[in-house]
Write a structure and sequence with these properties.
By secondary structure, this protein is an alpha/beta fold. About 35% of the residues lie in helices and about 20% in strands. A five-stranded mixed beta sheet has the order 4-3-2-5-6, with helices on one face. Strands 1-7 form a two-stranded parallel sheet.
Length: about 130
């Protein structure tokens, strides 16, 4: 009698270790994303109850003394306009957006100047706020 021993090789894959790794990566990226701030300047933004989220192309930050920053680099308002004009001509985006992050203590005229600049360039301007508590 030729009895053969049946040896089956299991083709199963254990997913438990893979899910543990993915879970740890998810926690890591969630924690590090809260530490990364898109605005490196320390500004106290006004609060708002609306929760509109828009794609952000350019960020113009305004400190309370009237200092302007384009994407974190200090510039005068004229330099911001010329830089945005060049960037918008070379841009492939359909609707570029200028996010205005003005300090709560800054004067309104600084914000209006940037909004007027965005209007002249034909872009959409959004004022950044903090969620109300």
């Amino acid at each position: 009698m030729g009895l053969k021993k049946k040896s089956k090789v299991s083709a199963e894959f254990s997913m438990s270790s893979l899910t543990d790794i993915i879970f740890l990566l998810l926690i890591f990226f969630m924690l590090t994303s809260t530490l990364v701030s898109p605005n490196a300047l320390r500004l106290t933004l006004p609060s708002s109850s609306s929760k509109t989220v828009a794609p952000q192309s350019y960020t113009v930050s305004i400190k309370n003394n009237g200092t302007y920053y384009l994407n974190g680099k200090e510039m005068s308002l004229g330099n911001i306009e010329s830089q945005l004009r060049v960037d918008l001509q070379n841009s492939t985006e359909k609707k570029p957006t200028v996010v205005i992050a003005a300090d709560q203590a800054s004067q309104l005229q600084y914000t209006v100047k940037v909004m007027d600049l965005a209007n002249r360039l034909g872009t959409q301007a959004i004022i950044a706020t903090e969620p109300s508590k």
